[in-house]
Amino acid sequence: MQLLRMIPVLALSLFSNFAFAHGDESRVAIELESPAKISAGATVVSFQLVDTKENKVVTPAELNVSHEQKLHFIAFDPALKEFQHVHPEFDGKVWNVNMSYLVDGNYFVWAQGELSVDSEEFSSFTRIEVSGGQPEWPAPTLGDVRMGSLSGSVATLSNQTLHAGKMAMLTLNFTKSDGSPADITPYLGAFAHVIATPIDGDSLIHIHPMNGGLPNEGMVHVTFPEVGDYRIWVQFIDAGELKTVPLSVTVTK
Ligand SMILES: [Cu+2]
Q1: Could you tell me which CATH number the domain at 10-131 has?
Q2: What is the pLDDT of residue 202?
Q3: In degrees rounded to 5, what are phi and psi of residue 62?
């Protein structure tokens, strides 16, 4: 049983996004029931969620369905290379989720949801330390990389200059590797999921692009609060297959 960091939520976007969250005390806490130090491989992460404002445990009854799920769970390593987006289930006592950690590292693990009492979105984070697996990746070097591909699908973010604290409207475009439009269908009720974190990993931006002018194009309204590099994971379904493509951006003054 371990009380770990809780995260405040600042609504930055007008759209149905989990907003920016930072590593400060906040309202919903994750209490790990399973160990915080684990061996690499397949594992079940078990935890409680505590609404510190209402002073009660958060079960599915206390959550709204948000993007087809009551709870979203996002984990990544400090090198910002390993990424998981999964959906815990409640067994009547605790939340459980199957995860797989192959590479060593002290992972950032986020739970995101929306409280039914007042529709407040929350992002809670904790750390899970993995050892005994593949050696930890070296510290991240990101830079501005706005195009990436995976098994024949290409994700491209438009290249406007990004300024800290200023809302940007980026175009997100999906094609096949031959340049033809990708065959996009909704993932968890959205055109795509854009999950961003700064290089230190302890804050999270989760955006759902609006449909753009073309079926393979979406509009990402986002504010990056700080100067520096951000890892961005873009999740989308192309020809029925879920793809996660890592990109990165550099945010200037
Ligand atoms: Cu999810």
Answers
A1: 2.60.40.10
A2: 87
A3: -95, 5
* pTM listed for this prediction: 0.90
Name the CATH topology of 147-252: Immunoglobulin-like (2.60.40)
Amino acid at 251: V
How close is the Cα of 66 to the center of ligand 1, in Å?
9
Report the separation in Å between the CA atom of 186 and the middle of ligand 1, taken as the mean of its atom positions. Answer: 13
- Ligand 1 centre from 209 Cα, in Å? 15
Q: What dihedral do alpha carbons 246, 247, 250, 251 form, nearest 10°?
A: -80
Could you give the CA distance from residue 219 to residue 7 in angstroms, rounded to a whole number?
27
pLDDT per position as a tens digit, 138-193: 999 999 999 999 999 999 999 999 999 999 999 999 999 999 999 999 999 999 99
- Residue 177 per-residue DSSP state: T
